[in-house]
Design brief:
Elements: H1 2-15, H2 23-76, H3 82-93, H4 102-106
Helix pairs in contact: 1-2, 2-3
Length: about 110
């Protein structure tokens, strides 16, 4: 919808080129340019909103994967609290030794 309005405003700007450059034409041209800039700003806002939504969805998918992985490991070690498993995963990713064997980290399914 905004694209149609932008095109119409562009056509109006082009149509003003045939008139002499007097005071009224300048005022009208400035008004049309302001409307154009406002529409483009609104369009940019929408793309920012879409980018934010995509980022949130991506973050959500990654966190679901992460917590699913931790839950699978917790199924193998029910005596360890969830928080401890997270700390062990952090240690392992840093290259430090952990209480949980490597075989479980590579294939956590029971």
């Amino acid at each position: 919808m905004n694209k149609d309005r932008i095109q119409k405003l562009q056509q109006r700007l082009d149509a003003l080129k045939i008139f002499p450059n007097n005071k009224e034409v300048k005022i009208l041209r400035d008004r049309i340019k302001k409307q154009l800039s406002n529409l483009q700003r609104k369009q940019d806002k929408k793309t920012t909103l879409q980018t934010t939504q995509q980022a949130n969805q991506s973050r959500s998918r990654k966190l679901k994967r992460y917590h699913s992985y931790i839950r699978q490991i917790k199924n193998n070690f029910p005596d360890l609290p969830y928080n401890v498993i997270r700390h062990e995963l952090t240690k392992r990713s840093q290259g430090k030794p952990s209480k949980i064997p490597d075989a479980v980290w590579q294939n956590p399914s029971p």
